[in-house]
Protein backbone atom coordinates (compact mmCIF):
# COMPACT_ATOMS: atom_id res chain seq x y z
CA UNK A 1 0.00 0.00 0.00
CA UNK A 2 2.75 2.44 0.97
CA UNK A 3 4.81 1.41 -2.04
CA UNK A 4 1.90 2.14 -4.35
CA UNK A 5 1.43 5.60 -2.83
CA UNK A 6 5.16 6.26 -3.19
CA UNK A 7 5.02 5.26 -6.86
CA UNK A 8 2.05 7.53 -7.46
CA UNK A 9 3.86 10.37 -5.69
CA UNK A 10 6.98 9.81 -7.80
CA UNK A 11 4.91 9.75 -10.98
CA UNK A 12 3.22 13.03 -10.02
CA UNK A 13 6.61 14.58 -9.24
CA UNK A 14 7.96 13.48 -12.64
CA UNK A 15 4.91 14.91 -14.39
CA UNK A 16 5.26 18.22 -12.52
CA UNK A 17 8.98 18.30 -13.29
CA UNK A 18 8.26 17.69 -16.97
CA UNK A 19 5.64 20.45 -17.04
CA UNK A 20 8.02 22.82 -15.25
CA UNK A 21 10.79 21.95 -17.70
CA UNK A 22 8.55 22.59 -20.72
CA UNK A 23 7.36 25.89 -19.27
CA UNK A 24 10.93 26.92 -18.47
CA UNK A 25 12.12 26.06 -22.00
CA UNK A 26 9.21 27.91 -23.57
CA UNK A 27 9.89 30.98 -21.43
CA UNK A 28 13.58 30.86 -22.27
CA UNK A 29 12.80 30.56 -25.99
CA UNK A 30 10.42 33.52 -25.99
CA UNK A 31 12.81 35.65 -23.96
CA UNK A 32 15.77 34.82 -26.20
CA UNK A 33 13.67 35.62 -29.27
CA UNK A 34 12.50 38.90 -27.85
CA UNK A 35 16.01 39.91 -26.76
CA UNK A 36 17.48 39.62 -30.24
CA UNK A 37 16.04 42.26 -32.56
CA UNK A 38 14.87 41.18 -35.99
CA UNK A 39 17.37 41.56 -38.81
CA UNK A 40 16.60 44.70 -40.82
CA UNK A 41 15.54 44.04 -44.39
CA UNK A 42 17.83 45.54 -47.01
CA UNK A 43 18.13 45.43 -50.80
CA UNK A 44 21.51 43.68 -50.59
CA UNK A 45 22.04 40.10 -51.53
CA UNK A 46 21.89 37.53 -48.72
CA UNK A 47 25.64 36.95 -48.89
CA UNK A 48 26.46 40.63 -48.45
CA UNK A 49 24.05 41.14 -45.57
CA UNK A 50 25.49 38.29 -43.52
CA UNK A 51 27.36 39.46 -40.48
CA UNK A 52 30.03 37.38 -38.80
CA UNK A 53 28.68 35.91 -35.57
CA UNK A 54 29.74 37.89 -32.55
CA UNK A 55 31.53 36.09 -29.76
CA UNK A 56 29.27 37.60 -27.08
CA UNK A 57 26.04 36.23 -28.53
CA UNK A 58 25.65 32.46 -28.37
CA UNK A 59 22.15 32.42 -29.90
CA UNK A 60 21.34 33.03 -33.52
CA UNK A 61 19.30 36.14 -34.18
CA UNK A 62 15.76 35.54 -35.27
CA UNK A 63 14.87 36.08 -38.89
CA UNK A 64 12.04 38.40 -39.88
CA UNK A 65 9.97 35.43 -40.98
CA UNK A 66 10.61 33.70 -37.67
CA UNK A 67 9.64 36.83 -35.77
CA UNK A 68 6.46 37.13 -37.87
CA UNK A 69 5.58 33.51 -37.16
CA UNK A 70 6.26 34.05 -33.45
CA UNK A 71 3.88 37.01 -33.38
CA UNK A 72 1.36 35.05 -35.43
CA UNK A 73 1.54 32.13 -33.00
CA UNK A 74 1.16 34.39 -30.00
CA UNK A 75 -1.82 36.17 -31.55
CA UNK A 76 -3.50 32.90 -32.54
CA UNK A 77 -3.00 31.53 -29.02
CA UNK A 78 -4.49 34.69 -27.54
CA UNK A 79 -7.42 34.59 -29.96
CA UNK A 80 -8.13 30.95 -29.14
CA UNK A 81 -7.93 31.55 -25.41
CA UNK A 82 -10.11 34.63 -25.77
CA UNK A 83 -12.62 32.73 -27.87
CA UNK A 84 -12.82 29.92 -25.35
CA UNK A 85 -13.24 32.40 -22.51
CA UNK A 86 -15.93 34.26 -24.46
CA UNK A 87 -17.75 31.00 -25.22
CA UNK A 88 -17.69 29.93 -21.57
CA UNK A 89 -18.97 33.35 -20.51
CA UNK A 90 -21.63 33.29 -23.22
CA UNK A 91 -22.83 29.87 -22.07
CA UNK A 92 -22.86 30.83 -18.38
CA UNK A 93 -24.52 34.24 -18.84
CA UNK A 94 -28.12 32.89 -18.76
CA UNK A 95 -27.32 31.09 -15.50
CA UNK A 96 -25.88 34.26 -14.00
CA UNK A 97 -28.89 36.32 -15.10
CA UNK A 98 -31.24 33.64 -13.72
CA UNK A 99 -29.42 33.61 -10.40
CA UNK A 100 -29.60 37.41 -10.18
CA UNK A 101 -33.33 37.29 -10.90
CA UNK A 102 -33.82 34.64 -8.20
CA UNK A 103 -32.02 36.89 -5.71
CA UNK A 104 -34.22 39.84 -6.75
CA UNK A 105 -37.38 37.78 -6.26
CA UNK A 106 -36.17 36.52 -2.89
CA UNK A 107 -35.40 40.12 -1.86
CA UNK A 108 -38.84 41.35 -2.94
CA UNK A 109 -40.60 38.47 -1.15
CA UNK A 110 -38.56 39.10 1.98
CA UNK A 111 -39.34 42.83 1.93
CA UNK A 112 -43.08 42.27 1.38
CA UNK A 113 -43.07 39.65 4.12
CA UNK A 114 -41.42 42.01 6.60
CA UNK A 115 -43.85 44.83 5.69
CA UNK A 116 -46.85 42.53 6.07
CA UNK A 117 -45.58 41.18 9.36
CA UNK A 118 -45.00 44.66 10.75
CA UNK A 119 -48.49 45.82 9.67
CA UNK A 120 -50.26 42.71 11.00
CA UNK A 121 -48.44 42.59 14.29
CA UNK A 122 -48.93 46.31 14.93
CA UNK A 123 -52.72 45.90 14.49
CA UNK A 124 -52.93 42.69 16.54
CA UNK A 125 -50.69 43.82 19.38
CA UNK A 126 -52.49 45.16 22.43
CA UNK A 127 -51.77 48.79 23.08
CA UNK A 128 -48.85 49.18 25.40
CA UNK A 129 -49.63 50.88 28.69
CA UNK A 130 -48.61 54.51 28.64
CA UNK A 131 -46.13 55.53 31.19
CA UNK A 132 -46.93 58.61 33.12
CA UNK A 133 -44.15 61.17 32.82
CA UNK A 134 -43.58 63.11 35.99
CA UNK A 135 -44.28 66.82 35.67
CA UNK A 136 -40.81 67.80 36.78
CA UNK A 137 -39.34 66.02 33.70
CA UNK A 138 -41.49 68.07 31.36
CA UNK A 139 -39.90 71.34 32.51
UniProtKB/TrEMBL annotation:
Region described as Disordered: 37-60
Transmembrane segments: 67-89, 95-115
Keywords of this entry: Membrane, Transmembrane, Transmembrane helix
Domain of life: Eukaryota
Protein name as annotated: Transmembrane protein
Amino acid sequence: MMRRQQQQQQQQNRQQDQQSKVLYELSALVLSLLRSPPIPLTDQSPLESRRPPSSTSTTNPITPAGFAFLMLGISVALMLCGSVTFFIGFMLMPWVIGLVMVFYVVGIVSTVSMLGRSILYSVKAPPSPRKEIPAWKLL
